[in-house]
Amino acid sequence: MSLSPFFGALVSCCGQQRAGLEERFFSVKIFALLLALMLVLPSSWAKEAALIAEDPEIERRMIHLSEDLRCLVCQNESLAGSRADFANDLRREIREQMKDNKSDKEIIDFMVARYGDFVLYRPPVKATTILLWFGPFVFLAAGAILLLFYLKRRRRQIEDPALSEKQRQQAEALLKDGKGNNA
Amino acid sequence: MMRFLLPLVAFIVLVVFLLIGLNLNPRQVPSPLIGKPAPDFQLQQLHDSDKTLTSKENLGKVWLLNVWASWCVSCREEHPLLVQLARSGIVPVYGLNYKDERDLALQWLKQFGDPYTVSIRDPEGRTGIDYGVYGVPETYVIDKNGVIRYKQIGPVTVESLETKILPLVKELQG
Hints:
The complex is a heterodimer of chains A (183) and B (174).
Chain A: H1 3-17, H2 21-45, H3 56-66, H4 85-99, H5 104-115, H6 130-157, H7 165-177
Chain B: H1 2-23, E1 42-44, E2 52-54, E3 63-68, H2 73-88, E4 93-98, H3 102-112, E5 119-122, H4 126-130, E6 138-142, E7 148-153, H5 158-173
Parallel strand pairs in B: 3-4, 4-5
Antiparallel strand pairs in B: 1-2, 3-6, 6-7
C-alpha cells in the first residue's frame, strides 16, 4: 500500500549521491513525480476499505451489537473490532439475521447457543458468575471496613496529651510576651 | 501477631487465585452444545460434488466429526493419529472441510492420507458457526441419538484419545 513513500525516499537519497547539478535536477523531477504519485495512489489503492454495507442502518446496528460480543479467536477483541476471518463470518451472520428482521436478543441468543456465555462481554448474572459480578463490591466493602477500623484506632492514638500545671504556665508566658523562652 | 497474619493470609489467598488462573486455558471455551443434538446439516461431499451427506444419515451409530482445513497447521499434527484411528476401525471419522478450497483439500488428503469415511465441505463456514467452531482443528464425538457428547478443541493427541475420546466411544457403543 505505501510503497511509494519508500521509493520516493530511495530516489531522493540516490540523487544526493550524484555529483552533477543536472543529474540532481533530474532526480528532483523524479522525486516530484513520485511525490505526486504518492499523494494520488493511496486513495486509488484503498479499495480494501470499500463500504461493504448495502444498508447503513443494518451496519450501524450490527456494529453496535457486535461491540458487546467477543471474538473467540482473538479473545481481547470484540467482534466489531477484530479483523480475524472468524469475526468476519460472524459479522456476516449478524448482518444476514438482521436482514431477516431478527431482534438483537434473538441474535445474541443464537450466539450464546453456539459459543456459550463467553461470547458476551457482559455475562448474565447466574450462579457461576456471581463472584464475577459482585466480587469487586465485596472487596470494596472489606476495604471500607478496614479503613474505618484503621482511622478509629489512629484517632485514639493521637489524642491530645494533657498539660501539667507548669507547662500551661510556660505556654501562657510564651503567648503573652510573644518571645521564646526556651527553658 | 495479627499484624503479620492478616497480610500473610491475604497474600496466600491471592496466590491461590493466581495459580488457578494460570492453570486455566482461555482457549478452551466450554461448548454449550455438549449434551445437545448435533446441528443438522446437508453438505456437498468433497470427493464427489454431486453427492451430499446429511447429519441424519449417521443416526444409530457413534461417530466423530473432525473439522479441518488444508490451511490449518495443527491439523497436520493430529492427522497421523486420525489415520491410525480410522485404520483401527474402532469408530468412523467424518471430515468437515472448513473454509477451504476443494483442490487444495483434495491434494492435502492425497499427501497426508485420508482417514475420513466421508468428507464434506463447508466453504463459507456456516455449518462451522452452527457447531460453534472457532479454532480448527476441532473434533466432536456424536452418539447414536445424534447428541454431541464431547468436543476436543485443538488437535487430537494420544493423551486425549486414550483418556477421553476412546473410553467415551466405547461407553457409547456398549
